[in-house]
From TrEMBL:
Catalysed reaction, written as an equation: L-glutamine + H2O = L-glutamate + NH4(+); N(2)-formyl-N(1)-(5-phospho-beta-D-ribosyl)glycinamide + L-glutamine + ATP + H2O = 2-formamido-N(1)-(5-O-phospho-beta-D-ribosyl)acetamidine + L-glutamate + ADP + phosphate + H(+)
Subcellular compartments: Cytoplasm
The name this protein goes by in its record: Phosphoribosylformylglycinamidine synthase subunit PurQ
CDD domains reported for this sequence: GATase1_FGAR_AT
PROSITE patterns: GATASE_TYPE_1
Taxonomic placement: Bacteria, Bacillati, Bacillota, Bacilli, Lactobacillales
Gene: purQ
InterPro entries reported in the protein's UniProt record: Class_I_gatase-like, PRibForGlyAmidine_synth_PurQ
Cellular component aspect of the GO annotation: cytoplasm
SUBUNIT field: Part of the FGAM synthase complex composed of 1 PurL, 1 PurQ and 2 PurS subunits.
Keywords per UniProt: ATP-binding, Cytoplasm, Glutamine amidotransferase, Hydrolase, Ligase, Nucleotide-binding, Purine biosynthesis
């Protein structure tokens, strides 16, 4: 399995994400510039957090026009696994790869704190290594993490069991306490909390490791096998 970690101008969690998936979880992985037009040779694409293009207009609104996005859409359409974290989640909603949108937190403040969550669906490529309904704590660090979708879309998301992570104490106003969800097909996940910041005891916890272990498990036997 080989993972690509995308880097946009203004990404600031790309190196941490590469370190988490490669050095800690043990997958083959490399950084791929947003200027690249190909994702050939990768079995998993990770879209990192940060402030792509300075968060101008809206978080993720400019990143969706980056050259790599055409290849990313193709990759996702072909069933490839895509994980977007924080700004990565915002980019995936802006690009239409995930439903809904991320609005400003109801407090209108940037919130940076450890956040208690529940893994409400462990039947996905991103969560299969967590026990059912596992309580975990992951750091959040965002200004625009308030998940919104219209009533019909929200009902569809719930009916399809697309919500994977819910906040235990909603910090930002997200509808239905949604902290992370997949697309309908289940191969694209966006989440506001940062699993890559919780993969070593020294960082304060290892609750995020399960996301990377789940993906390594889901891509076992993938074409570009290093694991
Ligand atoms: N850590 C991040 O990815 C920040 C996300 C985004 N730029 C926000 O503040 O909402």
């Amino acid at each position: 399995m080989k993972a690509a970690v995308l880097t946009f101008p203004g990404s600031n969690c790309d190196d941490d994400l590469l370190w988490a998936v490669k050095d800690i979880a043990g997958a083959d992985a490399e950084l791929v510039s947003a200027k690249s037009e190909s994702l050939d040779g990768f079995d998993l694409v990770l879209v990192p957090g940060g402030f792509s293009y300075g968060d101008y207009l809206r978080s993720g609104a400019i990143a969706k026009f980056a050259p790599i996005m055409t290849a990313l859409k193709q990759f996702a359409d072909n069933g490839g696994y895509v994980l977007g974290i924080c700004n990565g989640f915002q980019i995936l909603t802006e690009a239409g790869l995930l439903p809904g949108a991320l609005q400003w937190n109801t407090s209108l403040e940037f919130i940076c704190e450890p956040e208690p969550l529940k893994v409400v669906n462990n039947q996905t490529a991103f969560s299969n290594q967590y026990p059912e309904d596992q309580a975990i704590t992951l750091p959040i660090a965002h200004g625009e993490g308030n998940y919104y979708a219209d009533a019909d879309t929200l009902a569809e998301i719930e009916a399809n069991h697309q919500v994977v992570f819910r906040y235990a104490k909603n910090p930002n106003g997200s509808l239905n306490d949604i902290a992370g969800l997949t697309n309908k097909a289940g191969n694209v996940l966006g989440m506001m909390p940062h699993p890559e910041r919780a993969v070593e005891a020294l960082l304060g916890g290892t609750d995020g490791l399960g996301v990377f272990e789940s993906l390594i498990n889901a891509t076992k036997g993938a074409a570009h096998a290093a694991n």
